[in-house]
Amino acid sequence: MSTVENFLARVEEVARLVDREAVEGIVTRLAELRDGQGRLFMLGVGGSAANASHAVNDFRKLCGIETYTPADNVSELTARTNDEGWETTFEAWLRTSNLCERDAIFVLSVGGGDAERGVSVNLIRAIDLAQERGAAVLGIVGRDGGHTARVGDAVAIVPTVDAALVTPISESFQSVILHGIVSHPLLAQGAAKWEGLVSAAESPA
Question: What is the pTM for the complete model shown?
Fold first, then answer.
């Protein structure tokens, strides 16, 4: 089996194994969030930060959910990192945003945060603040999900099928699952651009 064949085979395997009920649980929470006029804060680091930024667009435009991510303001993110340290970047940003019980944070991460090994501690601090303030904790994470999966309210875990591909598969499926979520009938407020064009073309004159 070639490298490409192996990768795509692992993708196919993960698609079969993703917990459908966990994803539906996230959708339900997001519908409740919108009904309660709460805000959604997307949090991720590295490739997950890029997915967080993409998700902000989709949740706002397709689902009508007020959504933000600190990854979209590199000036504030780097200033806080320089002046206060990386571990508190997301927590401090959420405090300034007045995170409250009507809101939710949505964590995108490969490991979900591991305090013992000092990995993604800024996510852990943000999660702890959300719990302290009564905000919901949602997530899509890889491996065993770390801190996010242990304490989150609705978290989908991307199954590990190949230890050598944990990061690329996890970050790829963040995007796959997110697109499934924003397309869900409970959340989608209309068709995306190209789907809308197809529907219009198929409509009777």
Answer: 0.93
